[in-house]
TrEMBL record:
Signal peptide: none annotated. Keywords: GTP-binding, Nucleotide-binding. It comes from Etheostoma spectabile (orangethroat darter). PROSITE patterns: RAB, RAS. Gene3D superfamilies: P-loop containing nucleotide triphosphate hydrolases. The keyword GTP-binding applies. SUPFAM superfamilies: P-loop containing nucleoside triphosphate hydrolases. Pfam families: Ras. This is RAB6B protein.
């Protein structure tokens, strides 16, 4: 990964969308400049929850944070419940970046 800044601290918090972690959002993102909200393209509920998670991030960080919405598990296309267009539309409505990826195959992981 090539970066213009000499040093970057990266912390990843995988909450698996669980409600019990929502109260910890302030401590997760206190000094963050980027938030990545991931949903499972085969799970409508995970997609529906993205609005709440993004709202929570904005409540804590305001407009000082870059937010990316990520649709994951593109390797399970035959089980897809959320279309690419729906993901793009949600990202547009929330003014966030959007990409789909597959952690399993590596599709769009380096982007």
């Amino acid at each position: 990964l090539s970066l213009s800044e000499p040093q970057v601290r990266l912390q990843l918090w995988d909450t698996a969308g669980q409600e019990r972690f929502r109260s910890l959002i302030p401590s997760y993102i206190r000094d963050s400049t980027v938030a990545v909200v991931v949903y499972d393209i085969t799970n409508v509920n995970s997609f529906q929850q993205t609005c709440k998670w993004i709202e929570d991030v904005r409540t804590e960080r305001g407009s000082d944070v870059i937010i990316m919405l990520v649709g994951n598990k593109t390797d399970l296309a035959d089980k897809r419940q959320i279309t690419i267009e729906e993901g793009e539309q949600r990202a547009k409505e929330l003014s966030v970046m959007f990409i789909e990826t597959s952690a399993k195959t590596g599709y769009n992981v380096k982007q």
